[in-house]
Amino acid sequence: MKSVSFVSLLFLGLIAGVHRGYSYPPMPLVKFYTKECPEARGIVQSTVVAAIKKNVGSGAALWNLHYHDCFVRGCDGSILLDSSNYGPAEKESGVPDSPKEIAYDIIDEIKYAVETICPRTVSCADILTLAARDAIAELGGPEWKVCSGRLDGFISYANESKFYMPGPSADYQTLVQKFALKGLTEMDMVVLSGAHSIGKVKCSVIESSLYNSSGPCGVDPTLDPTYAMELKAQCPIGSSNLVFLTPPDTSVNGSSPVPYPGHRRLLATRSAGNVPSKRYYVQVSGKNRKKGKDAKSNQNLKVRNSKGTLRSDRNLMSTKSGKALVYREAGFSEKDLASAADKENQPFFHDLVKSMEKLSTLKDPSSPGGEVRCNCRSINL
Question: Which pLDDT belongs to residue 298?
């Protein structure tokens, strides 16, 4: 690993007119550490499983951390670096929905265990990428192929995180543009927004949508009024509470969705609100799974009926193409709402695998080289 350059293996030049951060062709090194450190993947998986058993919210935290890492300078572990004399690092950007400290602690634990067995062999970037995949699989989501061979970056700037990361109130055009800068499509954007099917968000992030907007009682007019009342009950003004990005489905007593077919791990501790599912898209769409007249009237959906917790979630319904993609991931069409109950979590899981494999291969061709850090929070001296 020490003598292998990730860039020399996978280099793909910048395309004219596109900001840095582009997707490489499929990475060939699925079993990169087979000889160098055969225990690496097992250590990552076992540590992630133990962490989720202790705190089920760890899964969403790891996925969020991986997403933030890849979206700035590519998947190079730059999100893991602490601030230095050169200025605040990405983790100090203060962007809404910043990764939680618990995720950093899990990566530190994995890195320590791996370094004990295979010093300076497995990069922090690879550890984070593997951990995010294993976390989602452990929670009942799909598994995607993770190729190895990434190097850890030297640079981490908070201002870059603010520039590249889409905000929680981003409109549809901005979302598409931000993802396009990384070589990701409109469909990738909608599919990867499904990460909001798990985890929680601070009330402060959504407070303006509940109290300081142009709708009745200060509620954002794109937000379903009934759902707004539920959120207000959990988020009084000035609250430091956390709310689920996608609330549990109380109609089924909070039971977990059916896991991905052939899924290899099932946690007894899985709980509603922490399981990846297409429910996010059903919520965002604002539709009901009904037949007859109600279903027909729902076909003329307006954005104000959306139950997306974030404004950016609700904005997925603001264009014809976005609406069509949300319906697709929800598992129903405008013509047949009843199909929402068919093929549990499909095609969302199928599409998520494809988009995550693209996201996890993002790399900034303009970044200077890389290394295998001994400590994920700082570059080697």
Answer: 43
